[in-house]
Structure formats: C-alpha cells, structure tokens
C-alpha cells in the first residue's frame, strides 16, 4: 500500500455527522450544503438531456458550448477573462479540482501554504503528493492572512509551491476586500508560487462585492469555482478550474486520468445554470442573510463571539470564556444531551480550538431550535458549576 495513502485519516467531520444522523430528531447544523432544491429550470434541462439521449462520453475538459457559457458567466459576474478553449476545465466538483491541480503541480518535498482554520481536504491532498502542508494560524488576525504574516512564512519556508486561498471561507465565513487581496498579491508576486483560489462561495458574499484573485494576480492564479453552493447543486458534482493555459493543460491530463470526463447530464444542467441561471443565487442569498443575522444575534446573546460573517453560510463561534474550552467535548456532549449537532472548530485545524462551526444552510425552524438547545445546554453547565462551587 502507498504510505501516503495509508497515513490519511478519515475526516472527523464525516464521522461526527454520521454519528449525528443516528440520533432520531437531532437538529443538524453541521452540513455544508444548501437546504434549497436545485432550481426547476436546471432540473428540466437535465431531464431533456436524458430524453434526447445525451448520455454518452464527452471530451475530458468539458463540452465546449458549456465552457463558453462558463467563461461568459465569470466575465459578467467578476470581470474575468478566460479562453474557454484553453483556460477552463470542468471537474467533478471543486474537490476534484483541488486534487487534480495538486497532482499536476506538486512534487515530493514541495510545501503547500494553507491558512488555518481551513476546510479539511487541502492538507491530505498535499500529503498524498509527498508535499508538506504548512499551516498559517490566522486566529489572531480575524481569521485572515495578513501580508506581514505571508511575507514571514515565505522567509522561513522557501519550498512553498502553492498558496491555498479559500474565500469566503469554510469554516469561518470571512472574506477579503479588493485592497486586502492586492496587499497579499504584492507579496506573492515576489515568489515562484501558484495561488489556488477556492472561490466556491463567491456568489454568497454579503458585506461587499466579491473580487476574484484571478483578476488580482492572473498569471499565478488557478481559480476554482462551481455550482454546488450558488445554485444548490451539491449532488450534481460540477466544478471548474481556470487559469493560465500552460498549467490548465497539465491539470486536464490528471483530470482525464481520474475521471475521463464529468457526466454528460450534469454538463447539460450546468449549461442551463450558466446560461439562464444568473439570478438564481440571489434568491437563496437573501434567505441566507436573514438566517445569518438570526443565528448571529442568538449566539451573541448567549455569549458567543464570531468573526464578521462576510460570506458563505457558516458562523465560527468562540465558546464563551466562562465555559470549558474543549470544543470536541462540548460538541459531543451537546449532541448527546440536546440532540444538537455542531462541528468542533478544532476539526478544521490550528486556530480552531475552542470554537464551533455552525452552518446556517438550514431552516429558520432549525436555527431557532439551535438557539433554544444551546441556551438549555449552557444553563445546565452553569447549574453544575454552581453546585461544584
């Protein structure tokens, strides 16, 4: 067996969620997917594709009409300019996009710089390729990378080949303004490094307009995006990788080996989303903002502190100081006693200790129940503290 594969551990977030699903009636605030349905016009496009027998292989990079629609969408939404013939590959979600990009770029001994807390696939993908993940703790800087910290880590880690940037962020919900991104780019352009910018939550940015790193530093940036979060299409598994033609051609080789191509039906659904679904995310985004504000205010009243929730659909909340800070113990006891599932922050790496990740991609009923159950749980802990005192 390949040692780098044997060393990879099953992700804790999946194990915890599986435990939560075994508890009847549990309120689940762990799931990072929209609780909306895929828009009807997209589903109908897929149905028509099946009925018209569009059920055969496609070219590995994706149908070229689809790639043209992707290019137009990214241009209209974010001002990006990608040649659909040479600079875009359609992948089986952003997860495969990360995997294929890492496999195309990394060699044993390289390093991957990952701001932490972070989504859980990036480090294992680096390990799989014999590269070393280098985690940059952002918990003291509002869960954002500063140019000063970025410059320092490059001074001490000269083998960094990829800087992985995810914004709006899973798990923290923070994002970056154009000025903040430019300050990072000023550091990155001094180094022979690729920026893999995971912007899957770009359509769910609330506090300011999303600016793509593909516009800030196009010659070094590999952009990842897709439809899972914006159009409630997690199960369709559609993502895109965009960037300089010379690196995209190499990523497409890995993509071809791994998948041949993504499903033809998904591609027809994606074509409809990119062509006629420009406004689909806005409807969901409006509801997410209502849910975000309700959850944020409820947590605040209970003594939790959260970074500014700029985007995505997560709140990364600090356990109130007068309670035990073991987030794994907190989350497990909360699940057992109140049947409320929330992910421990430490599952997302360095800087996540003492935090909990709440997903507000849930109904208002679930959000209200979440606050009530937390209130009950914290109240029971205070009573215990008083008894012990």
Automatic annotation (TrEMBL):
Cofactor(s) needed for function: pyridoxal 5'-phosphate
Entry keywords, A to Z: Aminotransferase, Pyridoxal phosphate, Transferase
The Aminotransferase class I/classII large domain, residue ranges: 27-366
UniProt keyword Translocase, yes or no: no
GO biological process: amino acid metabolic process
GO molecular function: pyridoxal phosphate binding; transaminase activity
Superkingdom of the source species: Bacteria
InterPro entries in the record: Aminotransferase_I/II_large, AspAT/PAT-like, PyrdxlP-dep_Trfase, PyrdxlP-dep_Trfase_major, PyrdxlP-dep_Trfase_small
PANTHER family per UniProt: AMINOTRANSFERASE, ASPARTATE AMINOTRANSFERASE
Family stated for the protein in its record: Belongs to the class-I pyridoxal-phosphate-dependent aminotransferase family.
Protein name (record): Aminotransferase class I/II-fold pyridoxal phosphate-dependent enzyme
Lineage per the UniProt record: Bacteria, Bacillati, Bacillota, Bacilli, Lactobacillales
